[in-house]
Amino acid sequence: MATQESEVGALFSLFSKKKSKLPAASVGDVVRAYQIAVSEKQLSQAMAAAGIKGEADLKQVMTVVQTLSALRNDDMKASIKRALHTFDQEDNGVISVTELSHVLTSMGEKLSRDDIDEIFREAEVDAYGYFNLESFVETLTGSL
């Protein structure tokens, strides 16, 4: 089993395009790819504590990951299914695009309309504006 350091190192290499530093804006991508569900506020605080400003090296990114590792979710698919199941009002495995869009733009860390469009671009929405929960989760999570 790979260690945290080697897994994060591989992600760092991917997002930095094999350079020694990556833009600070990409630190969140590495953290989330490591399956740490983190808010922008938590990420900003961890990055500030690690001394990240414009760019970050692997050591700084590892510090952020270690700081936030308690938030790691090793079963992201199951967590997403549980969260989305809340919106399956008839318990039939489908969710309304309209309802979920409203929730995503109005609760918690609100998403923009462009973000919503990007999320649903891959979803197979039926003629009535619903999508299948299981296939949507598979699309969102890929090979997690």
Task: Explain how this protein is built.
By secondary structure, this protein is mainly alpha-helical. Helix content is 54%, strand content 8%. The protein contains eight helices and four strands. The protein has a two-stranded antiparallel sheet with strand order 1-2. α1 packs across α2 and α1 packs across α4. It is elongated and about 50 Å long. 16% of the residues are buried.
Which tags fit this structure?
144 residues, mainly alpha, two-stranded antiparallel ribbon, 8 helices, 4 strands, elongated
Estimate percent helicity: 40-55%
Q: Which series of helices and strands comes N to C?
A: HEHHEHHEHHEH
Overall, the morphology is elongated
Q: Would you identify the regions where 5 or more consecutive residues have pLDDT less than 50?
A: none
- Gap between N and C termini, in Å? 15 Å
Beta strands, count? 4
Number of helices: 8
Percent of residues in beta strands: 5-15%
- The largest sheet has its strands arranged as 1-2
Find the structural class using helix and strand composition: mainly alpha
Oligomer: single chain
Mean pLDDT: 88
The largest pleated sheet is described as: 2 strands, antiparallel
User: What's the gyration radius in Å?
Assistant: 17 Å
